[in-house]
Specification:
The protein is α+β, with helices and mostly antiparallel strands. 38% of the residues lie in helices and 17% in strands. Strands 1, 2, 3, 4, 5, 6, 7 and 8 form an 8-stranded mixed β-sheet that branches. Strand 7 and strand 8 form a beta hairpin. It is globular, with a radius of gyration of 22 Å. The termini are far apart. 27% of the residues are buried.
């Protein structure tokens, strides 16, 4: 009788361990699928936005007046004109000039920036003041404002729009416009600059292609 009980106990322990292993494996598999989906979705958008940037630079004859410099300083003087031209090269379906959350251009995000230097990505600014554009494919672009109300050479991209997870580094990324000393334009490799990224989130463009 004692041996039978011991045998039964061992079976229960083995089943418990098996269930735990399966559960861990399932979680890891789900995480890998989520990250693969995030990478795939964003890589396609990154290519489109890079092409739109190059087309905009060409249309503005190489001087956009909206960039951070890799050498020193920044230029915000013509960001309004830059974004008007930039968005012409994308398939915009809907525009929310203000109240982007209320008007259905963006979802409620899990976490917002609380850094004074990143005020454009605060909860209030993203939900009520920033410009938001919904694309034909359901993704969106959020263009933050500085304290003086002017647009800046940085915008956020939500690769799947209103769908979850609505987290920085998973489906929400930032694009910082850089101009180098030779006058070439590109997006900074940090694609979550100013956005609060949780552990495991994608932070740099290099990680997309790993």
């Amino acid at each position: 009788m004692i041996k039978y009980k011991a045998y039964s106990f061992n079976i229960v322990v083995l089943i418990f361990i098996f269930v735990i292993v399966v559960a861990i494996g399932t979680v890891n598999t789900v995480d890998r699928i989520k990250q693969h989906t995030a990478k795939t979705n964003f890589s396609g958008l990154y290519s489109k936005y890079s092409n739109a940037l190059m087309s905009t630079v060409a249309e503005m004859y190489g001087e956009t007046g909206c960039y951070f410099s890799s050498a020193s300083g920044a230029n915000f003087s013509h960001c309004n004109e830059f974004y008007k031209t930039f968005l012409k090269h994308l398939n915009v379906k809907k525009y929310c000039q203000t109240k982007a959350l209320e008007n259905g251009c963006i979802p409620e995000y899990e976490v917002y920036s609380q850094k004074p230097s990143c005020i454009g990505f605060s909860r209030y600014m993203m939900n009520y003041e920033d410009d938001a554009f919904v694309m034909e494919n359901g993704s969106n672009i959020i263009i933050p404002h500085a304290k003086d109300g002017n647009r800046i050479p940085m915008f956020a991209v939500d690769s799947n729009g209103l769908a979850k997870p609505n987290k920085a580094g998973e489906d929400l990324f930032s694009m910082v416009i850089i101009r180098n000393a030779s006058g070439s334009y590109y997006f900074h490799s940090n694609i979550t600059y100013c956005l609060p990224v949780e552990k495991g989130g994608i932070e740099h463009i290099q990680d997309i292609y790993k």
